[in-house]
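Write out this protein's structure.
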Amino acid sequence: MEIDLGKSILGRNEELARENRRLFDSAGVFVLDVLASPGAGKTSTILATIAALRDRYRIAVVEGDIASKVDAEKVRAHGIPAVQINTGGACHLESDMVRRAVDTLDLGELDLVILENVGNLVCPTEFDLGQHARVMILSVPEGHDKPYKYPNIFQIAEVVILNKVDTMPMFDFDEADFRDVMRRLNPAAPIFPMAATKGEGVEKWATWLAARIEGVRAR
């Protein structure tokens, strides 16, 4: 007899993800899963997003890290509720972790929950969390060839943010090549150039996200 533990784990995670999504839908809360490698600017993008939308929507953040609570403290310093998940070595968030985190929040008082996933371009692709959309953040210093090396994560993203575009002159980043491979991997995903720490390009991204939030609220 052979037992495939991978299938068992993924199957249970998918079941819990469906339960999470039903919970979020019933509360009218849009949930965004933020994916990126370490240093791409996940937290700075989240803070820029909060600044753009906080006057319109009630927002909370779930921070996923292997260790520490640094990012959650940064979010709380801006007056936004933040729940820290330390995975203790796991390279991604899972549905049960997210459920335990959101159970500490009053979903009835929220419109948007942002999940900052663990910095990794491989593991999170397999694990649905019950989110309504996934955003993949690629920073210019990482190079335009990341979609060639990690195609799956770019294929599952509903939207892609190209961050740190203000550093473009300092790096050999071929934006045309990046956009070409994205058209082949995921032609439906819009790409938003951004310099999150400077607030550049945030408005268009926030407009896209606001439309998605309204779609869930209208259900």
